[in-house]
Design a protein that fits this description.
Keywords: Cell membrane, Hydrolase, Membrane, Metal-binding, Metalloprotease, Protease, Transmembrane, Transmembrane helix, Zinc. The chain contains 21 helices and 15 strands. The protein is of the alpha+beta class. It has a four-stranded mixed β-sheet with strand order 2-3-6-4. The protein has a three-stranded antiparallel β-sheet with strand order 10-12-13, with no helix packed on it. It has a two-stranded antiparallel sheet with strand order 1-5. The longest helix has 51 residues, at 214-264. It is globular, with a radius of gyration of 31 Å.
Length: 681
């Protein structure tokens, strides 16, 4: 640990952060000074008016002036009394008596990192570990004991060495004095944020003062105008301080990674970083699964075996190796579908991206002292009991309308696997169709079948071409936004070359040419795919069925674009409902909705009468859509919206989108499943 020194980049960001703090202090002291002078003038003026002619009117004016001055001064000092308390309702505290091996493990890490043992240790459910503490203005000056939060889903997804690296990273943030500046900048951020945005109690107090009399209310409103001016100044300072904090925060992550590598080695932190997205996605999948089961009053007694199953299931689907029941994700797997060559540094990001962190750790190349490959759950005395307790706490806030039924892991596996298969394409296509659609070709336009194998058509080269074209298309959109000034950045990198916004005109045509070449290549491959399966169908006497599947899909595909465009128009037309809008503008917008609804309702009628869409239209959806069609809904009547009418319309919009989206997916899946049938038959 003695060999770790802060980088030049870290020093540079630290200096910027210190300068931003100084700027805030100077600005804040100037505002305080002016506010004190202003309050004294208000107090003196109010007292003078009262003494000039003591009447109820002059007393009210005098009190109003004094209240205005005090409000402005109190606004600037209210953060001193604000304490940011971290919500612990989702956490369960554990002790050394309950988990002696885990506490000994953590004690060893803090000893190596040379920091303090956590004040308290808590368990949560998610894929996460963090050090946290309640903060206030005094946090900048007084030492504060930190608490450690450990996510049980994280422990479920890492080895002992990986867990050691993750905890060493968290403690690494507090291991050296040089890291203290990060806490200062964070607290300054909190102070300004409090002044700008956390004003509910302040506004409530001001409102109570204003309610005394209309004269006093006048001065309170005037005080708020002055406060708005102060907030404008502070917003400018906040941008500077926040930008400095984010830049420093990214450097602090690299520094904490180096600390972790010195404790556990580079490799365990790398492997955990690359797996955590999969672990988190698996956890969210299970949570969403049981969220959909609330109406059925179904929940698990222990959610973590389900989490483990989903993580390994998805890994197997993506052909990832497995060691000790943990999927192994390498950098090529991690970036398989991300083919972009566009790099824009996100100056507001608090963490560097995973690829940069992995590259920095690989450069350090610190060997593993002892690679402990057992899953981190072995550190708990009775992991099943812990998991069940955390699961109970996780679902404690859910309200069920009937007696709750516990779902066994085996039942979950059966239902999840069935749902997954129904909502994904066969892995035989190697994700070729996950983000692109099949194309129908006229049989008579086909040339002689190319001599290509199935592996040629759906191999890595073909898949890479698809995802490269998708990436270039998105890159062109982003670079066009930069060119038009919609993204305010000074420079960006593309394929390792730095560009200024004024050079976008040079780059875009080059990318468009490359995109056209790739699309032509994909089209040639798609035609070869069509011919390949046509030949296969002919050899098995299924040509007519094959062409009918393609034509049915093609008809749905052609309808979908028009249908989806209407959905987008309805969503755009109703977006204003979420914002404060003048009555006159609301009425104009409502009239626009009424006009657009004519076409929208026509489309709904078509769907309800089209037998092709009936399998995806449930009784509940049909009932709501028929209600929407039958009623003349009035969405707004001054001064309020009709929430019930709006709910009927918005539900219909979302259900319409579900119908067209679900039917499109199912028709595509039916076609692809038929292709699988041709291969397996």
């Amino acid at each position: 640990m003695q060999s770790i020194t802060v980088s030049e980049s870290f020093k540079k960001m630290t200096i910027k952060a210190i300068l931003s703090i100084c700027l805030f202090i100077v600005t804040y002291l100037a505002l305080i000074f002016l506010s004190v002078i202003f309050t004294i003038i208000c107090a003196y003026g109010g007292f003078a008016i009262i003494m000039l002619k003591p009447t109820l009117l002059t007393i009210l004016v005098g009190v109003g002036l004094l209240a205005m001055g005090i409000l402005v001064l109190f606004f600037l000092g209210k953060f001193i009394f604000k304490k940011n308390v971290v919500d612990r309702s989702h956490l369960i505290e554990i002790t050394a008596t309950q988990e002696p091996q885990l506490f000994a493990f953590i004690q060893k890490i803090v000893g190596e990192v040379k920091t303090d043992f956590p004040k308290k240790i808590y368990l949560s459910a998610e894929v996460n570990a963090s050090v946290f503490y309640d903060s206030s203005f005094l946090s900048m000056f007084l030492p504060i004991k930190k608490n450690l939060q450990i996510g049980v889903a994280l422990v479920n997804a890492v080895s002992v060495s990986e867990f050691e690296a993750i905890l060493a990273h968290e403690f690494g943030h507090f291991s050296q004095r040089s890291m203290k500046v990060g806490s200062y900048v964070y607290n300054v951020n909190q102070v300004i944020y409090n002044l700008l945005y956390e004003n509910d109690s302040f506004e409530s107090t001001a409102s109570n003062i204003a309610s005394v009399h209309s004269y006093i209310a006048f001065f309170v409103r005037l005080g708020f105008r002055i406060i708005q001016g102060i907030q404008w100044v502070l917003r400018k300072i906040y941008d500077i301080v926040n930008l400095s904090y984010m830049s420093l925060s990214r450097e602090m992550e690299f520094h904490a990674d180096e600390v972790a590598a010195n404790v556990a080695g580079s490799e365990p932190l790398i492997t955990s970083l690359l797996r955590l997205d999969l672990a988190d996605e698996s956890y969210k999948t299970v949570i969403n699964y049981y969220s959909d089961k609330i109406s059925e009053a179904v929940k698990p007694s222990n959610i973590f075996p389900q989490h483990q199953f989903v993580m390994n299931f998805l890994a197997k689907e993506n052909k990832l190796p497995n060691v000790n029941n943990l999927p192994q994700v390498n950098l090529s797997n991690y970036n398989r579908y991300n083919k972009t060559k566009l790099v824009i540094t996100n100056q507001w990001a608090s963490h560097p991206n995973t690829e940069d962190r992995v590259a920095a750790l690989q450069k350090l190349n610190i060997s593993v002292k002892e690679n402990k490959t057992d899953r981190a759950i072995v550190l708990f005395k009775s992991i099943d009991v812990v998991q069940q307790k955390v699961t109970d706490n996780l679902f404690a806030q859910v309200t069920y309308n009937e007696e709750v039924k516990d779902e066994k892991t085996e039942e979950f596996i059966e239902t999840y696997t069935k749902n997954y298969k129904a909502n994904t394409f066969d892995t035989i296509f190697n994700c070729y169709y996950d983000n692109k659609n099949p194309f129908y070709f006229d049989k008579d336009s086909l040339e002689s079948p190319p001599q290509l194998t199935f592996n040629d058509l759906f191999g890595e080269n073909a898949v890479d071409t698809v995802y490269t074209s998708i990436a270039i298309e998105r890159d062109i959109q982003t670079i066009t936004q930069i060119k038009n000034g919609d993204l305010a950045i000074k420079s960006f990198d593309y394929d390792g070359v730095k560009y200024a916004p004024k050079q976008c005109d040079e780059l875009i045509p080059v990318l468009e040419t490359e995109l056209a070449r790739l699309k032509k290549e994909i089209e040639v491959n798609d035609k070869a795919i069509f011919q390949y399966f046509l030949t296969l169908a002919q050899s098995k006497g299924l040509e007519t069925e094959y062409l009918n599947h393609y034509k049915a899909y093609d008809e749905i595909d052609k309808s979908y674009d028009e249908q989806f465009e209407i959905y987008v128009k309805m969503m755009n037309a109703t977006a204003f409902i979420n914002y404060n809008t003048p009555f006159e503008v609301i009425e104009q917008n409502i009239n626009t909705i009424y006009e657009l609804e004519k076409l929208f309702k026509e489309q709904i009628n078509k769907l309800l009468g089209d037998e092709r869409y009936q399998p995806v239209i449930t009784d509940e959806i049909k009932e709501n859509l028929n209600k929407y069609l039958a009623e003349v809904l009035v969405y707004f009547s001054r001064p309020t919206y009709d929430d019930n009418a709006l709910n009927i319309m918005m539900t219909s919009i979302h259900q319409y989108q579900y119908i067209i989206g679900r039917k499109f997916f199912e028709s595509k899946k039916e076609l692809l499943d038929f292709k699988v049938k041709l291969i397996n038959q």
